[in-house]
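Need a sequence for this fold. Nothing fancy.
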């Protein structure tokens, strides 16, 4: 299996030209040390709040999937920032939007949603199926990135895997639910299933091991997958999703994920609203 190209940002606000070139070529890059230890500690407070640890009323958006035979659960929640004060700080009080936004070469940057993914030790069956993120979105356009921040040491056995350059394909694939017992109401079945990259000898699959604070940045069209967590420790990540200047609203019939459609948006129009706030203009 090949390696995701990894580099250190050239400054707190810029990933650098080599990283931009690699992102455009492969559809994914890894930024080493993108999030400082101080901000990682704030994210951990956000995780505790989400899991309801040591707080009176934990975040109600915590979904737990625990499949038969697993010793640990798969906790996830989307669009938590409006209720989770620690995650809100990460989005509004750090230079991370500048850093991640520099990958997109965009004149504006909106926040789309956060996605907290906690795979407990022993949640072996919580396999993330092959998918690309835009299948779930009420957004048209190509400048949408998933900035997936590692909260733990993540060896290759539990790391995300990507189909290199798959963001250049034309078709949008059908949305596959992460919970194998569920489906999306109004599912757009006219879309093809995601390709079976694991059984395609021509697929170029890449991955990389990560340390806390490293971040993958990948395009909303890049296909990716991940194994369950068979290790004896947590595998946590915070994904922040940003939108650049070529994106318009798509009034999709299918239930979107995250399940939010913004306020007062019209098909083909601007996506800026309270739910998808404008963070930067350059
Ligand atoms: O961490 C995982 O296993 C899934 C992450 C993912 O697929 C995503 O953020 O889109």
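Here you go.
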């Amino acid at each position: 299996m090949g390696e995701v190209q990894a580099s250190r940002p050239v400054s707190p606000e810029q990933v650098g030209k080599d990283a931009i070139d690699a992102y455009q070529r492969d559809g994914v890059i890894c930024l080493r040390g993108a999030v400082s230890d101080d901000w990682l500690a704030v994210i951990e407070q956000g995780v505790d709040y989400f899991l309801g640890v040591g707080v009176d009323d934990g975040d109600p958006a915590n979904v737990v999937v625990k499949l038969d035979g697993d010793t640990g659960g798969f906790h996830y929640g989307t669009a938590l920032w409006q209720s989770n004060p620690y995650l809100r700080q990460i989005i509004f009080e750090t230079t991370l939007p500048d850093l991640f936004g520099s990958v997109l070469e965009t004149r504006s940057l909106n926040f789309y949603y956060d996605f907290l993914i906690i795979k407990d030790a022993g949640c072996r069956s919580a396999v993330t199926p092959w998918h690309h993120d835009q299948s779930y979105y009420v957004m048209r356009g190509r400048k949408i990135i998933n900035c997936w921040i590692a909260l733990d040491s993540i060896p290759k056995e539990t790391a995300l895997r990507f189909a290199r350059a798959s963001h250049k394909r034309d078709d949008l694939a059908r949305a596959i639910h992460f919970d194998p017992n569920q489906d999306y109401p109004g599912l757009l079945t006219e879309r093809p299933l995601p390709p079976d990259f694991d059984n395609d000898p021509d697929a170029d699959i890449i991955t990389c091991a990560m340390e806390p604070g490293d971040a993958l940045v990948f395009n909303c069209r890049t296909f990716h997958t991940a194994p369950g967590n068979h290790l004896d420790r947590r595998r946590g990540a915070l994904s922040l999703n940003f939108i650049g200047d070529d994106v318009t609203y798509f009034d999709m019939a299918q239930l979107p994920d995250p399940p939010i459609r913004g306020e007062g948006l019209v098909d083909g129009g601007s996506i800026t609203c309270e739910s998808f706030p404008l963070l930067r203009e350059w």
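For context: The mean pLDDT is 93.
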